[in-house]
Design brief:
Number of helices: 2
Strand content: under 5%
Helix content: 55-70%
Low-confidence stretches: none
Number of domains: 1
Number of strands: 0
Shape: elongated
Length: 70
Amino acid sequence: MTTEQIIAEIDAEIARLKQVRALLSPSATPTNSGPKPVRKRRTLSKAARARIAAAQRKRWAEQKRTASTK
């Protein structure tokens, strides 16, 4: 074998090893190439917000009541 052939085989082996490393390395996993899609925000009606607020106030009152009886 000539020196050029040995160098060519070494280069080919390096290329194969780089491919294997890219497949095995978790940090080398390809990422999405585009920006993340923007999620549409959901809107709640006033009535829904009022129900949620009332339910939360009820939970707070129950928690306060059980904390004061201990």
